[in-house]
Specification:
The protein is mostly helical. Helix content is 45%, strand content 0%.
Length: 67
Amino acid sequence: MKLQTGSLKGDVNKDGKITVTDLLVIKRQIVKLKSLNEEEIKRADTNGDGKITVTDLLYVKRVIIGL
């Protein structure tokens, strides 16, 4: 899933791939250990509902494990 800017949805750190690092950043946002900036939030919001939730985390996890 691509964003308008060409970034991959779920690729929070914008390194061109979805990895465990992206998963951990999303997890830290959910538990309020990290605050993402507006661009990072757009990339982390994989389902486009305007919120960073466990659903976004699960999407990234599924991509990482190949489901």
